[in-house]
Structures are given as structure tokens and as C-alpha cells.
Amino acid sequence: MITAIPMKDEHIASHFSKADSVLMINEQAEVVASFINPALTSGCDGKRKLVELIQAHGANRVIVRNIGQQLLSKLLNQQLEVFHAKNGRTEIAYFANEHLAECEPYLEASQGRPSTNHIAKQGKGGCCDHHHGESGCHGGHCDSHEHGDSDIELSETVHIKRCCQKKHSFLHHN
């Protein structure tokens, strides 16, 4: 089993996407890989690359202190186990254990922190592949959600794909 741990200095990073690097350890607590966090400098694209690197290094689970709902959703959608470490000073070797009694498993994106930045970006036209208008969730292909249901007409001028209704539920409250 390979465990990914976001690091800041010599400790678990307080926030997953703000970690300086990611350490990959095996069951014997041996470091099998580490890499610089691409999310530090590349915004949304960097977060996507961060998830890809974790997968490319064969991780089965990820340890976090704090993580946003959007990034937590991406990890869970990749079938990664995600655990909340309550103490940033926990010895790294502890996370090599098969059972992490001191860690809460994150099973749903709602267990992450709501992203005020994400909501603000959506209100201003979106970020990445989630733009309002002709592309993204509201007109084109939305590749980060499943499209099982039909689209929703919120008004004559606002059209939103059902897959993004929950993600953009703030539209209903304006």
C-alpha cells in the first residue's frame, strides 16, 4: 500500500493544496517517492496535476489535515482512500499502518471545506473547464461530472447541466 502525505517543512501540511511537497511511503514507512506540489504555482491545472501525480506514483490513500471539497471530490472520484490526520505533528511512520485508528476517513466531498474561492470564480465566469456561457458546464462538455440526467433551465437566460446543479447550487440563492 502506498500512502501520499502532503508535507510542509518536516510535518504534514495544514492544507493539502498548499503543501510544499508530497511524500509517498510504503507499508514499511520507507519513502518510495516525493515530488514538489504543482498546485502551488499552477492554480486549477496544478491541482489536477497533483491528483495525477499521486495516482502515477501508485498511491492507494492520501492523508490530509484540511482539504477543500472540490479537491477532495477529485481524490475520491479516483478511488483513493482519504484520511483526516488530526495532528500535524504525527510521526510519518504512523501512516504506514494498515489501520489508522487516529484518523477519520473522508468518504464524501462534503467532509472537505467549502471553497469560497471556487464559488467566487463561478460567480465571475468560472475557472478551468467550468465557465459560464458557451463552454464548460453551462453549454459544453463537463468532464468532471457524470451526465446521467437532462439539463435544467433555471430561467430564460440561465441554463445549467444537471450534473453541475449541485456544484453550482449557489445560483439558486441569488
Describe this structure in words.
Strand 3 and strand 4 form a beta hairpin. By secondary structure, this protein is α+β, with helices and mostly antiparallel strands. The protein contains four helices and nine strands. The radius of gyration is 18 Å and the shape is globular. Strands 1, 2, 3, 4, 5, 6 and 7 form a seven-stranded mixed beta sheet that branches. A two-stranded antiparallel sheet has the order 8-9.
Number of strands: 9
Query: Helices and strands, in N-to-C order?
Result: EEEEHEHEEHEEH
Number of helices: 4
Largest sheet features: 7 strands, mixed
Q: Report the sheet-strand fraction.
A: 15-25%
Average pLDDT, all residues: 77
The computed structural class is alpha+beta
Q: Which stretches are low in confidence, meaning pLDDT under 50 for 5 or more residues running? A: 129-174
User: Distance between termini?
Assistant: 46 Å
Approximately how much helix is present in the residues?
Answer: 10-25%
State Rg. Answer: 18 Å
Shape: globular
